[in-house]
């Protein structure tokens, strides 16, 4: 294998980075919390597995988001991966809608952490927030998975190229 040096490239600015990240498809999730700081939720695609021992996810949250204080102060969250027909819920949790109105749009229950679990989610990860790291404008929340709830939906919702797309469990075969 032969390696060739690339010419010096300009520094990556915010718009270049955002345009490049638009090409990185991801599942759409509604992240919820409840606890001493109250109930809150937001839409996120910045969710990733970290390790399976112990089962750990990371979730990225902008500190300017209206939901941030609740996630900062609560020690629990639930990652609710949306099914293909829940794009309206994604938009609702991603906007400036009042928290009470966001949660009134769906049916919820709780597991071990007490964070709201979306009943119609493709899959939900009930978690304890075990570590926070601040990077730039965001906090990275490291979350130990306490329980997993599998939904009935067969198709999931993805975000790619600044739009919603669907995928199904059969696509993986």
TrEMBL record:
<protein>
    <recommendedName>
        <fullName>FMN reductase (NADH) RutF</fullName>
        <ecNumber>1.5.1.42</ecNumber>
    </recommendedName>
</protein>
<dbReference type="InterPro" id="IPR050268">
    <property type="entry name" value="NADH-dep_flavin_reductase"/>
</dbReference>
<keyword id="KW-0520">NAD</keyword>
<comment type="similarity">
    <text>Belongs to the non-flavoprotein flavin reductase family. RutF subfamily.</text>
</comment>
<comment type="function">
    <text>Catalyzes the reduction of FMN to FMNH2 which is used to reduce pyrimidine by RutA via the Rut pathway.</text>
</comment>
<keyword id="KW-0288">FMN</keyword>
<keyword id="KW-0560">Oxidoreductase</keyword>
<dbReference type="InterPro" id="IPR002563">
    <property type="entry name" value="Flavin_Rdtase-like_dom"/>
</dbReference>
<dbReference type="InterPro" id="IPR019917">
    <property type="entry name" value="RutF"/>
</dbReference>
<feature type="domain" description="Flavin reductase like">
    <location>
        <begin position="21"/>
        <end position="166"/>
    </location>
</feature>
<dbReference type="InterPro" id="IPR012349">
    <property type="entry name" value="Split_barrel_FMN-bd"/>
</dbReference>
<keyword id="KW-0285">Flavoprotein</keyword>
<dbReference type="Pfam" id="PF01613">
    <property type="entry name" value="Flavin_Reduct"/>
</dbReference>
């Amino acid at each position: 294998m032969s390696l060739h040096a690339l010419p010096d490239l300009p520094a990556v600015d915010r718009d270049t980075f955002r345009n490049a990240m638009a090409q990185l498809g991801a599942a759409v999730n509604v992240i919820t919390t409840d606890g001493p700081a109250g109930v809150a939720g937001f839409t996120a695609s910045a969710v990733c597995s970290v390790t399976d021992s112990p089962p750990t996810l990371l979730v990225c949250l902008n500190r300017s988001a209206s939901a941030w204080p609740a996630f900062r102060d609560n020690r629990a969250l639930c990652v609710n991966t949306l099914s293909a027909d829940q794009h309206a819920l994604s938009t609702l949790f991603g906007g400036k809608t009042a928290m009470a109105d966001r949660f009134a749009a769906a049916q919820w229950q709780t597991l071990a952490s007490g964070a709201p679990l979306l009943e119609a989610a493709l899959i939900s990860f009930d978690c304890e927030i075990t570590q926070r790291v601040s990077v730039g404008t965001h906090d990275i929340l490291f979350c130990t998975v306490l329980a997993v709830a599998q939904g009935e939906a067969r198709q999931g919702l993805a975000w790619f190229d600044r739009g919603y797309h669907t995928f199904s469990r059969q696509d993986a075969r």
